[in-house]
Amino acid sequence: MTRKQRRLLMIGGAGVVLAIAVGLVLNALRGSIVFFSTPKMVFEQHIGVGKRFRLGGVVEPGSLQRGDHLAVSFKVADGEAAVPVAFKGILPDLFREGQGVVAEGALDNTGVFKADTVLAKHDETYMPKEVADALKKQGHWKDDYEKKPSGAASASAAEPGK
């Protein structure tokens, strides 16, 4: 076997090993990928029972109900549709009606979204990119969502030592 043939054989073998490694990584990640949907998309795409996804929107005012043993139910809406959500656990401190929320879980047979994780937006200017894009697409976007607080710039200018 010539030197050139050995080199080609080594490169080919390394390529096969690399392809197998990439295949194993992609196979392992396939089960953990979770997609984002708005309530309108849930109804349009007919997402199946038990399929995990992230549901994002606004907690519908008047829909929050607290039950026994940290059980909570509420509706997540996007202006066109609303999905009932059931969650058992401690909600984030900033969770409240009328605020943005992202819940991760799956639909059950009755059409209720069983969430195992609930995330609330962390301040008045933050909104997940997916939620903002969905609101823009549906025409519910307000220009003041993107405005930065005016006090932040003046506070840092007033303190020259920082």
TrEMBL record:
The keyword Iron applies. It is found in: Cell membrane; Membrane. Residues 140-162 are annotated as: Disordered. Residues 150-162 have a biased composition (Low complexity). Residues 140-149 have a biased composition (Basic and acidic residues). It holds the Pfam family CcmE. Residues 1-7 are cytoplasmic. Heme binds at H122, Y126. Gene3D superfamilies: Nucleic acid-binding proteins. Residues 29-162 are extracellular. The keyword Transferase does not apply. Heme chaperone required for the biogenesis of c-type cytochromes. Transiently binds heme delivered by CcmC and transfers the heme to apo-cytochromes in a process facilitated by CcmF and CcmH. This is Cytochrome c-type biogenesis protein CcmE. It comes from Rhodopseudomonas telluris. The gene is ccmE.
